[in-house]
Design brief:
Helix content is 32%, strand content 29%. It is α+β, with helices and mostly antiparallel strands. The protein folds into 2 domains: 189 residues, Histidine kinase-like ATPase, C-terminal domain (Heat Shock Protein 90), CATH 3.30.565.10; 126 residues, Ribosomal Protein S5, domain 2 (2-Layer Sandwich), CATH 3.30.230.10. α9 runs parallel beside α10. The structure holds adenosine-5'-diphosphate and magnesium ion. Adenosine-5'-diphosphate binds next to α2 and α4.
């Protein structure tokens, strides 16, 4: 591992929450139906993510840690139709280059699993291990080899809340996956798997608030908008209650937030913001969600159509309430 690699790793791994995001996305890509996240010291001390997904075969384990190694693009063309989260094959290598990363994994076919430990980019252990099918990645000594990065971390509480934000968003995008979070050996919360988005939203946002959310539905050519948004009597002082997903990927997009505000402008006070969990599904060829690996931006091929569809779907709900 060269210093350049470690600096480049900082592009993907900015803070503990970035590690949580990458590892959870890998678990989702692996088809997990249960993901458990353990955080120590707000993720600054240790992050452990276990899944019951496909696991990694013994011969592929070293490859998983190699830079630019991904099992997720079969053809170049697929780059334009990426549905799975990862396609860069950088995350695991980057994480392992700035920490001590232990991976324990087993595929359904394998009789035994394998444990591999990589520290600051160097493999220091590799052995057979007894373990269930799936993968557990434990990341500790985060940024020990990159003191500058460590200095930029905020308090444990703040880093923990960043981690929990990431978990919340992925949980909202994947209701059919059970998500458990442990801290200090205790369960912080657990979201049961459900086929119903409404049920997941209710448990994530809390019953009280979700009772004041109304279903949203709208569609135009090749585009679907759905989800839940608040009645005008449920607002907050920031946009932090507005969650937007494009093809079930969380994004933070000025255009989408603006569309939400436009729909609500007539019914809520200035500088108050609604709560909304909005999903926009469209042809992957019509959107670029990989503008930057660590950022949440999107670029729509036809932004105007998306904008108007969101305004229209929300306005429809608000007009219904007014009648
Ligand atoms: P990417 O997700 O972009 O392919 P990563 O560095 O995140 O790259 O992961 C590298 C590879 O390791 C993946 O392509 C996948 O084959 C394997 N992998 C990583 N995490 C898991 C997991 N939890 N379950 C199964 N396979 C995994
Ligand atoms: Mg990945």
């Amino acid at each position: 591992e060269t210093l350049t690699h470690r600096i480049a790793a900082g592009e993907v791994v900015e803070r503990p929450a970035s590690i949580v995001k990458e590892l959870m996305e890998n678990a989702l890509d692996a088809g997990a139906t249960e993901i458990t996240i353990e955080l120590e010291q707000g993720g600054c001390g240790l992050i452990r993510i276990s899944d019951n997904g496909s696991g990694i075969s013994a011969e592929d384990v070293p490859l998983a840690f190699a830079r630019h190694a991904t099992s997720k693009i079969a053809e170049f063309d697929d780059l334009y139709r990426v549905r799975s989260f990862g396609f860069r094959g950088e995350a695991l290598a980057s994480i392992a280059s700035i920490s001590r990363t232990e991976l324990v994994t087993r595929t359904p076919e394998a009789l035994a699993g394998i444990r591999i430990i990589v520290e600051a980019g160097k493999m220091i252990e590799r052995a057979e291990a007894g373990c269930p099918v799936g993968t557990t990645v434990t990341v500790s000594r985060i940024f020990d080899s990159v003191p500058v990065r460590k200095k930029f971390l905020k308090s444990e509480n703040t880093e923990r809340s960043y981690c929990l934000d990431v978990i919340t968003r992925l949980a909202l995008a994947n209701p059919e996956v059970r998500v458990r979070v442990l801290a200090k050996g205790r369960e912080l919360f657990s979201y049961p798997a459900t086929p119903r988005l409404a049920e997941r939203i209710a448990i994530v946002l809390g019953q009280r608030d979700s009772q004041r959310m109304r279903p949203i539905e709208g569609a135009t050519a090749g585009l679907k908008v759905y989800g839940f948004a608040s009645q005008p009597d449920l607002t907050c002082a920031t946009t932090k209650q507005i969650y937007t997903f494009v093809n079930r990927r969380h994004v933070k997009d000025y255009l989408l937030n603006h569309a939400v505000m436009t729909a609500y402008r007539r019914v809520i006070e200035p500088r108050r913001y609604p709560a909304a969990v909005l999903y926009i599904d469209l042809d992957p060829a019509d959107v670029d969600v990989n503008v930057h690996p660590a950022k949440l931006e999107v670029r729509f091929r036809q932004p105007r159509i998306v904008y108007e569809a969101v305004v229209e779907a929300l306005s429809l709900m608000l007009r219904g309430l007014a009648q």
